[in-house]
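Quick note —
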Amino acid sequence: MPRKIAARMSLPEEDREDLAIAASLHNLGHIGTPDILLERGPQTTEEERVFQGYPERGARILGACPELRSAADMVRFHREHLTAPVIHADCRESRYPLCVGSSGWPRSMNLF
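Predicted structure written out below.
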């Protein structure tokens, strides 16, 4: 399915592959999330902070492999609503076309 979506968006083949990898592994960062938070969900502000860190943890895991760095960026920002007033500077500067639109302005990345 991610490849079909990427094709409909006319993404280059390299980005289609990255999107397929990121879609398959977007929850990888849950590996570093305490089981109790995965089972019952966060109940405090601190637990919410830890839980919401899973995209960054997943991106660090994938980013350790140079061939997966673009997929790592997709995983890092997959939960962001980039049309919001506060946007990660890292995403604004990303080379990834789904993260920054052709106008240079970020767009929504919640694809997975």
